[in-house]
Every structure is written in C-alpha cells, then in structure tokens.
Amino acid sequence: MAPVLILLGPPGAGKGTQARMLEEDFGLVQLSTGDLLRAAAEAGTGAGRKARAVMEAGQLVSDDIVLAILKDRMAAPDLAKGIILDGFPRTAGQAGALDGLLADAGQRVTAAISLEVDDEAMVARVSGRYTCAGCGEGYHESFKQPATAGVCDKCGGTAMKRRADDNAETVRDRLTAYHAQTAPLITYYDGKGVLARLDAMGPIADIRQALGAIVAGVSV
Ligand code: AMP
Q1: In Å, what is the CA distance from 74 to each residue of 84, 85, 89, 91, 100?
Q2: Which of 42, 69, 112, 141 is spaced 20 to 30 A from 95 at the CA atom?
Q3: pLDDT in tens, the chain (220 residues)
Q4: 192 among known catalytic residues
C-alpha cells in the first residue's frame, strides 16, 4: 500500500520545507491544503474568495471547503507512490473525514509525524520567510538566503513572494488556532498507534535525515 503520511506541527515548524524534501528523497507527492487554498483564492473561485479572508485573519477555513478542495486533488492520478499531507488534517472533523476517505480506497494513515517546536521561535521563522515565485523554493531572511541575493538557487528565478498571512500578528492567531484545533490530533494519532514525534528545532538538514529515517521505517 502506498504510504499516507501526515506532517503535524504549528505554522513555521517546517512542514512545507520537509514535505518538499520527502518528495525529492522518496518520490512521494506533497498535498498542502494551504497551497490548494491559496491557488483557489488566486483563481478567484467562490470557495477561494471565501477562504482568502479567513486565511488572512489567521483562522481555519471551514471543513466543507477544505475537504472539497482536498478530495478534488486526491482524485488526480499522480499519487500512486504515496502522499505527504502538509497542513491537513487540522481539525477532528477533517481527521475523521480523512479516515473515511482512505477506508473507501482500502487505505489508512501510515504515519503522523509531529514536528515539535517552540512557539516563540515560530514567530521569527514565519515572519522572515519568503518563496521563489517560479518554483516555490522556500527562503528566510535570517536562516536560509539564496547563494546569490535575489536569485533562486533551484530555478534561477528572480521574483520572490511573501504570504499575506506571514506577519507576526497573524502568526500568533494561527498558533492559537493550531493549539486549540489541531494539536489534539497528536493524541488522536497516538491512540491509533501511528504517531512519531520529532524535535524540529535543529538545522533543516538534520531534520531531513531524522524524518527520512522515520519514513523509510514505515514505508517498507
Ligand atoms: P498553511 O499554508 O498550511 O500554513 O495554511 C495557511 C492557511 O490556510 C491557514 O492559516 C488556514 O487559514 C488555511 N488552511 C490550510 N489548511 C487548512 C485546513 N486543513 N483546514 C482549515 N484551514 C486550512
């Protein structure tokens, strides 16, 4: 059975960064509901317009909208090697819906990996981050600058962008939403016997290695 991995952790924990690395290392596909919602908002769909205001306020988008967008993406044919869910599920309702969706396909969650970090450090991490507009590679003003200022290491692009919700004030609201609605899922997946915890405060490369060891252990 192709692995279904979940990355849990507050904003700034490194879910997106590590998911992209797992794609490279294991051929899995990253499914980020945040990316899907931002794309819908940019495309100006009805759901996207509703989601935009909620995202900019640092709140969670309704389960209905998120599940519709995720189901659509999961129906695509490119997920055979397995998926890494990044930013989903974020509520008990979403976790239950995911279990149902997977059960219908004869699958289940392979592992939920909790990236454990310190809240205060997350405000600094999130406030300084930006991405290449061309390929999505992530950078940070203090922790990960491109080798040549303003030029993406990966694709050579020179347009960089920042998320509207990556500012200190909104990050605090997003952290509050995480602790109230998402952190309880750590207990939920622990109860199912699929939880792994990972200290994610260290260098990106160290976390990549530790996470890789966990994924290699559950994917065989
Ligand atoms: P992210 O890119 O994962 O940090 O998500 C950015 C924002 O998109 C969040 O702060 C929420 O407003 C929204 N969002 C992303 N994924 C979900 C989800 N699974 N459930 C509800 N809202 C979500």
Answers
A1: 12, 11, 14, 19, 13
A2: 42
A3: 789 999 999 999 999 999 999 999 999 999 999 999 999 999 999 999 999 999 999 999 999 999 999 999 998 888 888 999 999 999 999 999 999 999 998 999 999 999 999 998 999 999 999 999 999 999 999 988 999 999 999 999 999 999 999 999 999 999 999 999 999 999 999 999 999 999 999 999 999 999 999 999 987 6
A4: no
Q: In what order do the strands lie in the sheet with 138-140?
A: 138-140, 129-132, 160-161
- Please state, in angstroms and as integers, the Cα–Cα distance from residue 149 to each residue in 4, 140, 145, 156, following that order: 37, 12, 7, 11
pTM of this prediction exceeds 0.90: yes
- Which two structure tokens, joined as six digits, stand for 120? 């205060």
129 is catalytic: yes
Please give all residues whose beta carbon lies within 6 A of any atom in ligand 1, as ranges: 11, 33-34, 37, 54-55, 58-61, 66, 87-88, 90, 94, 165, 174
**Residue in 59, 61, 169 to alter for ligand 1 test, most ligand atoms within 8 A of Cβ:** 61
Which among 90, 129, 171 is the best mutation to test ligand 1's pocket, defined by most ligand atoms within 8 Å of the CB?
90
